[in-house]
Amino acid sequence: MNTPIRYVIIALVLIITLHSILTITHDEYSRVTSLSNLISQSNNGSSSSATIDIHTEPPISISSPDVAKEELSHKTSKAMANATFVILAHNDDLDGTIQSMREMEDRFNRKHGYPWVLLNEVPFTPEFIKRISIITTAPIEFGIIPYDHWYQPNWVDEAKAKAKASRDKMKADGIIYRGGYRNMCRFNSGVLQFFYRHKLLQKYWYYWRVKPNVHFHCEIDFDPFLFMEREKKTYGFTITMYEFEATIKTLWSAVKEFVTQHPQYVAPNNALGFLTEDGGDTYNLCHFWSNFEIADMDFWHAEAYATFFNYLDLRGGFYYERWGDAPVHSIAVALFTPRDQLHFFNDIGYEHPPYTHCPRGDNIWSKGRCACDLKKSFDYDGYSCMTKWDRLMNN
Ligand SMILES: *[C@@H]1O[C@H](CO)[C@@H](O)[C@H](O)[C@H]1NC(C)=O
Ligand SMILES: CC(=O)N[C@H]1CO[C@H](CO)[C@@H](O)[C@@H]1O
């Protein structure tokens, strides 16, 4: 073999070796990079300790190993449900909205990045949008509830002035509950009845309703949305209570008529026992407090609820008596789904002043680093319907 050929062979061997090394290094690099991408995506840049230097160092050197591990296990299992938070707010609810969102982010969503949808009867002000937009890196959308979704239909008989008369009377009766006067009518009832039809919410399967000025008192170390999906739940709540009879005088008779006409919608093993003490003759006024709701949006869109809602709507009780979304939602889920699709989220510490649900069980309470006082939990307060729920579920 002459010298030039030897050099060519040596050069070739060198090039191949170098190429292999480069390939290995490159593979290693891209693996690390994509892993880093996964981390920063699942985290969505909300925790700086986990994302700093992400592209120059492998995950192992991340300064907060717990966070990294948690996020990795997240990504390897199913990371997110098809779900969103929804808040109905007015422009003057800015501070309360920030507070509620901030607590939800701190206790749960900074680890998940679920989107937020904020809805209003009028456009949000630029100031509102600006202040809300900076408090989280989760996606946020702002929307208006279209006028024809909530405006009192013109067939409502204002000539009889029924609606107004009974509304005024109700004001006079003074709808009081022990925490003081509650302005029940801040939102047009139609907004509450129709929000789930909003186009910004159509693309999600589950929603979690959050109100301005509420508190989330404990760490939420599991994903309630994924729980709903895995366990095939329809509706989740934390607080139950009695409705004011004055607001729903004829609701139960309308429900009974509906059920007689449409028995096919009533589910086997339903939760009627939560709603009545006499086998369905009268309504005991118990309902899930709907300012907190984690629910399957499809339930409201499906035939049973759509038919039920239209039936109630034509009765005019939303306008004449001010039927609330809480009893209407509660009655519907109690009757049209099996009771085991309803879920009491004991682990979620929630306060809507003046009432608090503080997770029962010392273990859950301390593990959740809860900020609420167990002694002040509303669960077995005289005004709560928790005993009716227990009775139903223990049967
Ligand atoms: C999420 O759920 C909604 C409503 O069921 C559905 O229309 C949409 O396609 C789903 N999105 C994904 C990404 O699965
Ligand atoms: C995975 C994820 O939620 N990504 C989102 C992170 O936040 C940006 C906006 O801040 C969104 O565009 C991404 O979809």
UniProtKB/TrEMBL annotation:
InterPro entries assigned: Glyco_trans_15 (IPR002685), Nucleotide-diphossugar_trans (IPR029044)
GO process terms (BP): cell wall mannoprotein biosynthetic process; protein N-linked glycosylation
Cellular component per GO, a single term: Golgi apparatus
Active site as annotated: 293
Any one GO molecular function term: alpha-1,2-mannosyltransferase activity
Annotated keywords: Signal, Transferase
Signal sequence residues: 1-23
Pfam families: Glyco_transf_15 (PF01793)
Family that this chain belongs to: Belongs to the glycosyltransferase 15 family.
The protein's name in its UniProt record: Glycosyltransferase family 15 protein
